[in-house]
Amino acid sequence: MLNARLSGMTDYPFTRLAGLLGKVPPYAGRPPLNLAVGEPQSPPPHIIADTLARHAADWGRYPPICGTPDFRAAVAGWLSRRYNLPAGAIDPDRSILPVQGTREALFQIATVAGAHLGRDDAVVLFPNTSYATYAAAGHLAGAQAIPLSARREDGFLPYLEQLDPELLERTALLYLCTPSNPEGAVADLDYLKKAIALARQYDFVLAVDECYAEIWDEAPPPGTLQAAIALDVDGDDDPFANIIVFHSLSKRSSAAGLRSGFVAGDYRIIALMQRLRTYSSSAPPLPIMAASAALWLDEAHAAEIRDLYRAKLDLAEKALDGVGAFYRPAGGFFLWLEVGNGEELALRLWRDAGIRVLPGRYLGRADADGINPGDRFIRIALVHDDAILAPALSRVAELLKSGGH
């Protein structure tokens, strides 16, 4: 009677975390602090409130699923500037679609990529460890969801050269994330070109989650559309064939509650995504699309927010350098600390410091050797003000040095 695939899924990572900590009282010496969730705490730009106020009359109108011309033009302009795309490379009317945040769209792409899902042995590939939505989407679309090793020695990115051709023949969809969640690893242009070439050779969809692309330390991460332009597409009239990328304002603009993002890429994939969303979803409301367009047109606030995260990385490096196998991520705002046993340390941090972190195993799956690569890690979100974050990181360091692992 009920969907067996849905019923058989593991709980969402934060549901599992609640189960882990639920029977353990937090440290009573200070208010609990949540460093588990990547929810920006810095105030959003005034652009949002100002634009929403100007467009208040539009709250009563249904938004078109394809978005407004102003929204699509703003996104096309940002993509062109950010990734140095040639003039006219991105078609705002065929290659861009607004979405309500990107989690929903990341889930839906597994359904859209169903050209190969009629096969009983079709697969969806995703990095191990990664955002939990990737595996769930493949599973519920009827494919076999297969994690790809993304270990420290491979730069925390799947090692594409070792993928079995027989596996690639069965692949409907490959998810990648750059900068990656949770590790903050950045795929360079050569890596992205290899992924695109595989997608075209084996005719699967390459879905690249670039939601953290604007939170970077030393250099802006390259983009998948940028890599595609550098490749010969063998006469295809779409330079972004087989590719779809995902972007959001949640991190770039500290606007998680706006629930505004977009997908861009292969116009055939976009057309199918639009058809699916016409039946199953809705576009962001018109005032939100207007505010989103204004945000994509403005670089100043994004640079200020990026500087805030750099300062948080400075705090983390000062507190944790040499502790918990600390490294400074190239992108994103997560720390990925190797601590021995992630669940045990998460429990101790909650009990002895009132700090909530996410055990890495909740973002990973057991590989072919039966080992979950996230077991030894915790993920810490650097999202709070420095005055809150600095003492919390010092407390994490103290527990690690005292044998917290």
Describe the structure in your own words.
- With 405 residues, this protein is α/β, with parallel strands linked by helices.
- The chain has 2 domains: 4-43 and 301-401, Aspartate Aminotransferase, domain 1, CATH 3.90.1150; 48-300, Type I PLP-dependent aspartate aminotransferase-like (Major domain) (Aspartate Aminotransferase, domain 2), CATH 3.40.640.10.
- 40% of the residues lie in helices and 14% in strands.
- The chain has 15 helices and 12 strands.
- It has helices spanning 4-7, 13-21, 46-54, 69-83, 103-112, 132-140, 165-169, 189-202, 224-229, 249-252, 267-280, 286-297, 300-320, 342-353, 386-401; strands spanning 33-34, 96-99, 123-128, 144-149, 171-177, 205-209, 243-248, 261-265, 334-338, 355-356, 358-359, 377-381.
- The strands form 3 sheets. The protein has a 7-stranded mixed sheet with strand order 2-8-7-6-5-3-4, with helices on both faces. A 3-stranded antiparallel sheet has the order 9-12-11.
- α8 (189-202) links the parallel β5 and β6 (205-209).
- α5 packs across α11.
